[in-house]
Write a structure and sequence with these properties.
Elements lengths: L4 H17 L4 H15 L3 H14 L4 H13 L3 H14 L5 H12 L3 H14 L3 H29 L28 H7 L10 E13 L2 H13 L3 E11 L4 E5 L5 H13 L6 E2 L9 E6 L2 H13 L5 E4 L3 E13 L1 H11 L5 E4 L3
Antiparallel strand pairs: 1-7, 1-8, 2-7, 3-5, 3-6, 4-5
Helix pairs in contact: 1-2, 1-4, 1-6, 2-3, 2-4, 3-4, 3-11, 4-5, 5-6, 6-7, 7-8, 8-9
Length: 358
């Protein structure tokens, strides 16, 4: 899952603001406010450029680390964000924001039980409206999971669908209740509370088959599958296709001894007028310095030449790779145009199109 609209954008953005407003030092507080403002306007690349000098100056500052995790999540680097928040909640157990953001990312990966525990930990430290709203959404997911399990048991032998001691009558599912989903309950939250729900989901005359995707992240794929199923669609096929990404060139300085040495090198390079640099924090180049990724070979060569003139022994590497993209096919009785419009609002980067059901 790529996490729902309310549990992605709004939640992380508000946590960012909460982090900024409680920063201690006035000078860094102003810088963090600027980063937060950029992030909340979805100007993520600018926010990253504004935050990196703060990381280079004080990589242990808890609020700087919190913003770093938020930006990583917004940049699509969920695993790195989880690592940042996990370390932060260990180093500063009194903070609620790392726990809250961990819950968001766990939920995005389908780790619902862990998300619930993380949210409860956040609420113990600082009760907040957004924390309780997220807890409600987690409970909605748990409720949907319970109904799915109940349907599975019912399909196997009806034992899970009976009111115990009351004969053959089946217990109603959320969709069987009068007027649709259970009014005001967790199932209603799971099915109807999403702001991007299709405006017209009355049944069409016959099922429509749809194909969507081109998704590389399995978590996003799971989120798309769950989104369709929550709107009554049946996902009947998942396909994987192999693609090669465009070949780019990364210019970098090899890893230094440790994070402190890398931060010191980044400050020194920045002081000499070199901009657009970043300390590499994960992978085999951890504690190296990145000077950017270039699609045009000549641009990478010019960057290397300018850095070599300053005495930096930079290197380049190709970053093109083979990736797998996933597509899903679904069958729905909802009006296809309304469903596609809602999909485009929720997953604007991946098209959903009608296909032959045969």
């Amino acid at each position: 899952m790529r996490f729902n609209g309310p549990m992605k954008k709004g939640l992380l953005a508000l946590c960012t603001l909460a982090a900024v407003l409680s920063a201690a030092a006035a000078s860094i507080d102003e810088s963090l406010e600027r980063v937060a403002a950029l992030a909340n306007e979805d100007r993520i690349a600018e926010a990253r450029r504004a935050l990196d000098p703060l990381l280079a100056r004080d990589a242990d500052h808890p609020r700087v680390r919190l913003l770093d995790g938020v930006l990583r999540a917004r940049e699509g680097r969920a695993e790195e964000a989880i690592e940042v928040f996990d370390r932060l909640r260990r180093d500063h157990p009194e903070m609620s924001e790392p726990w809250n953001n961990l819950a968001v990312l766990y939920a995005a990966e389908g780790r619902i039980d862990e998300a619930r525990e993380a949210l409860l930990a956040a609420l113990e430290r600082r009760p907040s409206a957004i924390g309780y709203a997220n807890l409600a959404e987690i409970h909605a997911k748990l409720a949907r999971r319970a109904w799915e399990r109940a349907r599975e048991l019912g399909a196997e032998g009806k034992a899970g669908r009976r009111l115990e001691g009351a004969g053959e009558r089946a217990a109603p599912s959320p969709r069987d209740s009068p007027g649709g989903p259970v009014s005001g309950g967790l199932a209603a939250l799971a099915a109807d509370a999403s702001p991007d729900r299709a405006s017209d989901d009355s049944p069409a005359e016959r099922p429509t088959c749809l194909r969507g995707g081109g998704i590389e992240d399995r978590r996003v794929l799971a989120g798309a599958e769950e989104w369709l199923e929550s709107r009554g669609a049946e996902v009947f096929a998942l396909r994987r296709e192999r693609h090669r990404t465009p070949e780019n060139f990364q210019v970098y300085l090899p890893p230094l001894a440790d994070r402190e040495a890398a931060a010191a090198a980044a400050r020194e390079i920045h002081d000499r007028g070199v901009r657009d640099i970043d300390v590499i924090r994960t992978g085999r180049l951890e504690n190296g310095i990145s000077f950017g990724v270039y699609r045009v070979t000549e641009n990478a060569r010019r960057r290397v030449a300018s850095l070599e003139r300053l005495g930096y022994p930079v290197r380049t590497r190709k970053t093109g790779k083979v990736v797998h993209r996933y597509f899903l096919e679904a069958r729905s009785t909802a009006h296809p145009e309304a469903l596609r419009a809602a999909w485009e609002r929720r997953f604007p980067d991946w098209p959903l199109e009608s296909v032959d059901c045969g």
